[in-house]
Specification:
The protein is rod-shaped, with a radius of gyration of 40 Å. The chain is 23% helix and 15% strand. It has a domain of 84 residues. It has four helices and four strands, in the order αβαββααβ.
């Protein structure tokens, strides 16, 4: 036999241990199962941000209610011309020149809905209503909502 064969024979014929070592471990303290969740309330979903300025209660929206029954359809000024005229009056005043009216719309009740730029509020525009209210409803009483 060659030296290689002898070494292989010695390795294969070597006595093997008859006992195996146990790899079992035991807990040294009490084990606890996770407790079930107790009456856990789900957090309320966050409020949706209103992106449509025509939707009610949008901050960029100002409603000028014309008393007692609104402006009749024949007496309403053109919405495009009204935007230009309101913006001209706001620009002429030093305190209100930062405000921009984007659109106006008349609702079914004859009230004027004025939409400002989205980074501005209708409440900010309401402070300067005296500058342009005569363009909306000349000779009528108005309420801002």
């Amino acid at each position: 036999m060659t030296a290689m064969e002898e070494a292989a024979t010695k390795v294969h014929n070597r006595p093997r241990p008859t006992t195996t070592t146990a790899t079992v471990s035991h807990a040294t303290s009490l084990t606890f199962a996770p407790a079930p969740a107790r009456n856990q309330q789900h957090p309320a979903p966050p409020k949706k941000i209103v992106n449509n300025p025509l939707s009610p209660h949008h901050p960029a929206r100002l409603i000028v209610q014309v008393l007692p029954e609104g402006v009749k359809p024949d007496d309403r000024p053109d919405p495009t011309k009204l935007v230009k005229d309101i913006n001209a009056r706001l620009a002429a005043n030093a305190d209100s020149k930062h405000l921009i009216v984007v659109s106006t719309k008349w609702n079914a009740h004859g009230n004027c809905i004025i939409l400002t730029h989205l980074d501005q509020t209708g409440a900010g525009l309401a402070k300067y209503l005296r500058l342009f209210v005569d363009l909306i409803a000349p000779g009528h009483d108005t309420i801002v909502r």
